[in-house]
Specification:
This protein is of the alpha/beta class. It is built from eight helices and seven strands. It has a seven-stranded mixed sheet, sandwiched between helices. The mean pLDDT is about 95. The structure holds S-adenosylmethionine. S-adenosylmethionine (SAM) binds next to helix 2 and strand 2.
Length: about 230
């Protein structure tokens, strides 16, 4: 919730703000922006099972008039030019092979004066070939950039970049706690005689936590505006 509040504050999300949530997943952030801030949110999500899950969860909490997660690719967004006030994305563009194209799509659908605010993985230093392969196999991680390079992509899409925040230290602590929780859950499921989950994901996750704590990988929050 704190991560979503940070996005909402920097984007100026309020009642009736038309938000596009890039790579919306099951729609958790989308529903939060609608419930907490009164925004009207359209999530863009590539995976049909997630779109279906998002629809079910949104209906269960009665937010279907304010939130819709639609099937689509953020590199070719099925929304009209100038139809959106704010584009957000939470820790997801790491999966998108052509981030410049996704940023260009954000620019296209935003009205003049509209804002983009998102968090994503960054690589402070280049990954070894073995780590790059592990991240791809376990978590479908595509090309990563360092903070200045990534900010450059946002600027090249036409945005005036007004904030670049390094979240690496903050993430390192959160990830250690989350990994301890995963380990405990895996032990419990194994003890119960049920499959303990996807091994490639788990192995890449363990390495990811180390890489963030070594400040090889990390997180960034970027904010920018489409000139009026
Ligand atoms: C790590 S999840 C993040 C979900 C959500 N932002 C959240 O915080 O709960 C990443 C999501 O991005 C979606 N995704 C990956 N590539 C995409 C693309 N090109 N266009 C739209 N969604 C994409 C995946 O299907 C997945 O559901």
């Amino acid at each position: 919730m704190a991560a979503n509040d940070a996005l909402a504050e920097r984007a100026g999300i309020g009642k009736g703000t038309r938000v596009a949530d890039f790579c919306a997943g099951l729609g958790g952030p989308s529903r939060y922006f609608a419930h907490r801030y009164g925004a009207d949110v359209t999530g863009i999500e590539l995976t049909p099972a997630r779109v279906k899950g998002a629809e079910e969860l949104t209906r269960r909490v009665g937010l279907q008039d304010k939130v819709r997660v639609i099937e689509g690719n953020v590199m070719q967004v099925p929304l009209e030019a100038g139809s959106i006030d704010v584009v957000v994305s939470q820790e997801a563009l790491l999966h998108v092979p052509d981030k410049q194209r996704a940023l260009a799509e954000a620019y296209r659908i935003l009205k003049p004066g509209g804002r983009i605010v998102f968090t994503d993985w960054v690589a402070h230093r280049p990954l070894s070939d073995a780590d790059r392969e592990l991240m791809w196999q376990g978590m479908a991680v595509t090309d990563l950039h360092d903070l200045p390079t990534y900010a450059g992509l946002v600027g090249r899409a036409g945005f005036v970049v007004d904030a670049v925040e390094d979240l690496t230290g903050e993430w390192g602590e959160i990830l250690k706690v989350r990994l301890a929780m995963y380990r405990k859950l895996r032990e419990e499921t194994r003890a119960a005689g049920t499959p303990a989950g996807h091994d490639a994901f788990y192995e890449s996750y363990v390495r990811f936590v180390d890489l963030v704590n070594e400040a090889v990988l990390g997180g960034g929050r970027f904010a920018g505006e489409k000139p009026a």
